[in-house]
Every structure is written in C-alpha cells, then in structure tokens.
Amino acid sequence: MGDDCKQHNEIERIGYITRVQSFSACHRLHSKSLSDEENKRIFGKCNHPNGHGHNYKVEVTVRGKIDRVTGMIMNLTDLKQHMEEAIMIPLDHKNLDKDVPYFADVVSTTENLAVYIWDSLAKLLPLNTLYEVKIHETDKNIVVYRGE
Ligand SMILES: Nc1nc2c(c(=O)[nH]1)N=C([C@H](O)[C@H](O)COP(=O)(O)OP(=O)(O)OP(=O)(O)O)CN2
Ligand SMILES: [Zn+2]
Questions:
Q1: Residue with CA nearest ligand 1 atom 29
Q2: Which secondary-structure segment (H or E) carries 99?
Q3: Which residues does the annotation say bind Zn(2+) (predicted)?
Q4: By the 8 A CB rule, do 69 and 28 touch?
Q5: Per the annotation, where are the binding residues for Zn(2+)?
Q6: What rounded mean pLDDT belongs to the chain?
Q7: Quick check: 143 and 80 in contact, CB under 8 A?
Q8: Cα 124 to ligand 1 centroid, rounded to whole Å
C-alpha cells in the first residue's frame, strides 16, 4: 500500500450528504389559540379561509463518518427511501391542516413543517446522523432547522 493510500485509510473523515425532494401541498396559517381578528392581523393573506398552495423544496443533510470500505456516509438510495416515507407519503398533494394529524393543533408554518420532517426522519435514520432540514417554501422564503 502506498503512503498516500495508507494515509487516506488512517484518517477519520467526517462529511455531509444532502438530498433534495420537492412536494406540493396547501395550507392556511391559523392558530386555534388566537381570535379570528388576531389571526387576520398576524397571518394576513395567509389566514384566508380558502388556504393557498406551495411547491415546497426540502433539502435533508446527513452528517457522518465516510466509511473506509464503502466510501459512503450512508447510501443515498436509503436516504431517498427514508425521505419518501417521512416527507412524500404524508405530505405530497395534501392539505397540511386537514390531512396531517400533527397540524390539527400546530400552525402549519414552514418552521413547524421543518420540525415535523426532522422528527419523522430522526426516527428512521441512524442515531445522531441527521444534521439539517432546509425548506424552501417559495423561492424567497427559506427555513433551516437543526434539531435544537
Ligand atoms: N415565519 C414565517 N412567516 C410566514 C410563513 C412561514 O411559514 N413562516 N408563511 C407565510 C405564508 O404561508 C406564505 O408562505 C407567504 O407567501 P408569500 O408572501 O406569497 O411568499 P413570497 O414572499 O415568496 O411572495 P412574494 O409576494 O413574491 O414576495 C407567511 N409568513
Ligand atoms: Zn403558505
């Protein structure tokens, strides 16, 4: 084994991998803890009873050791499967407030959506590997949650 190769194998390398997934959903910003007037004042047009839709883009980042044998932090095909289960099946083409029980009493802001996705993914991924959930609600509105 050459010196370069030996050194490559001896150092523990930590890396980050990210997979992106898009889904469409509708929602309304409305809190059951607030009066109708307060809801209108705080959430404005996003409190309209008809709701509105977004094409959300979610970036999920996993942190971990680059395995010396496989060269992978984790297989992206496995991450894809976990994102399908935690994001696409429960959220895609859904009314977040009516179809997702979690949002029955939790306001469907992008912050809370990021927490929901984090908690769902953390149950599926190896312990302490989930690093970041980033959601683009629109091209201009972006939320990051790191489990804190
Ligand atoms: N802190 C948060 N504020 C707001 C959220 C949120 O999730 N967290 N969400 C909304 C609305 O749901 C909606 O996303 C706002 O959309 P909109 O204002 O149309 O989005 P843009 O800013 O991208 O639209 P432009 O009008 O093109 O600027 C509101 N607040
Ligand atoms: Zn919205």
A1: 46
A2: helix 96-99
A3: 27, 52, 54
A4: no
A5: 27, 52, 54
A6: 96
A7: no
A8: 30
- Interval 53-72 mean pLDDT: 98
The model scores a pTM over 0.90: yes
Q: Is 95 helix (H, G, I), strand (E, B) or coil?
A: strand
Q: What are the structural domains of the chain?
A: 14-145 (3.30.479.10)
Mark the binding-site residues, compressed into ranges.
27, 52, 54
d(CA 53, CA 69): 44
**ipTM (interface pTM):** 0.94
**Which ligand has the minimum distance to the alpha carbon of residue 143?**
1
> How much of the chain is in helix, strand and coil states, percent to nearest 5?
40, 30, 30
Q: How many CB atoms lie within 10 A of CB 106?
A: 17
Ligand 2 center to 26 CA (angstroms): 7
